[in-house]
Structure to design on (190 residues):
């Protein structure tokens, strides 16, 4: 499967986290897709497209207000192109039906807020690049229909994230939670 990532760096300070934002986004999306059972070499005729906006807290707060009615910055937002809700709580969502030979399948959009990512990564004792990789992988799973609205769904999604990131040699994002717990875990958004 070919993966096409379009990255828009709206806040140039993202280049301080990683000079190659495009490669980081590509790696993170690949990690998430593999974790969800969509291996890159599984079907070379399939092609998936995802767009990623790397922006600042002010822009994320505006997007969060516009799309979720929450007037605050958050770490990551995602807008799936398909409703891939699972049949039952705690179950994996169905694969996008459009996957197959032919034109690329657009899964959706992702946006991340640099200041929030930096604050969270510092509070969690992680590098900003590792935290960004986790958040993009998390958002890609949202595009694939995973969520964390219930405990069963959260266990499934967090298990996939953890296993996929560990396979890629990255730390378990849920291993240590400090007093400033991850926004995803406490706010159940993203």
């Amino acid at each position: 499967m070919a993966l096409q990532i379009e990255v828009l760096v709206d806040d140039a300070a993202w280049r301080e986290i990683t000079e190659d934002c495009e490669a980081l986004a590509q790696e993170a999306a690949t990690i998430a897709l593999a974790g969800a059972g969509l291996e890159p070499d599984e079907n070379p005729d399939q092609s998936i497209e995802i767009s990623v906006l790397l922006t600042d807290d002010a822009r994320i707060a505006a997007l969060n207000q516009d799309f979720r009615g929450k007037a605050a910055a958050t770490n990551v937002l995602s807008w799936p192109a398909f409703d891939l809700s699972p049949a039952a709580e705690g179950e994996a969502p169905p694969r996008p039906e459009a996957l197959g030979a032919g034109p690329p399948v657009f899964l959706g959009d992702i946006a991340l807020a640099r200041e929030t990512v930096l604050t969270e990564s510092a509070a969690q004792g992680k590098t900003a690049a590792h935290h960004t990789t986790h958040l993009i992988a998390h958002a890609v799973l949202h595009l694939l229909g995973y969520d964390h609205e219930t405990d069963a769904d959260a266990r499934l999604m967090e298990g996939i994230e953890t296993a996929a990131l560990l396979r890629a040699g990255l730390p378990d994002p849920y291993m240590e939670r400090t007093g400033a717990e991850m926004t995803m875990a406490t706010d159940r958004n993203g």
